[in-house]
Amino acid sequence: MRATLGAAALVAAFVAGMALAKQPGPVVEQLGPVVPTPQPSPKAEEHIRMITSFTLGNKPTGESVISFEATDFGVSGKVVDDSKFRTIATEQYSLVEPKPQAKELRDQIMLKIRDLERDLLKFVDLTGPPRVREPITGGGERP
User: Fold this and answer.
1) In terms of C-beta density within 10 A (0-12 exposed, 13-18 middle, 19 or more buried), how is residue 50 classed?
2) What is the pTM of this model?
3) Which of 6, 55, 56, 78 has the fewest CB atoms in 10 Å of its CB?
């Protein structure tokens, strides 16, 4: 009888342990799909465009190659010294073979460039001509 009582106590303890172990889990409420957190809105910027480089290549034969680069910037900040500039886009252009709708404007630009060249040559006359290059001597040996 002792063996039966021991076995019964063991079974009762096992059943009680199972009852304690199988308590109901936490309540979970289904809320639907997750909506991603929106990204912060960008700071207010002004959109500006400017010519950032200009190249003029003249040859004595009269040929000229003119190219320039235009860049778009986003500018944030109220004060000029405190402004931040972000490059948005940049593109290279050439006046050599413009689109048909730009040929008349190209001709006007060329006239203005020739006027600028005359002014630059006057500047050279006022500030001093280019220095004459010294002839290379000594058969290419370094000093």
Assistant:
1) exposed
2) 0.60
3) 78
Number of residues that make up the chain: 143
The SS3 assignment for 134 reads coil
**Residue 15 maps to a domain:** no
3-state secondary structure of 64: strand
How many beta carbons lie within 10 A of that of residue 95, not counting itself?
19
DSSP state letter for 53:
E
Amino acid at 63: E
Question: Is there a single domain that holds both residue 77 and residue 112?
Answer: no
Element (H, E) at 70: strand 64-76
Interval 75-100 mean pLDDT: 86
Q: Which residue range forms the structural domain that includes residue 68?
A: 43-96
In the predicted structure, residue 5 carries a pLDDT above the cut 80: no
Q: Are 81 and 55 in contact (CB under 8 A)?
A: no
Partnered with residue 94 across adjacent β-strands are 67
Q: Give me 136's structure tokens.
A: 């290379």
Do 82 and 53 fall into the same domain?
Answer: yes
Q: Is residue 103 part of a domain?
A: yes
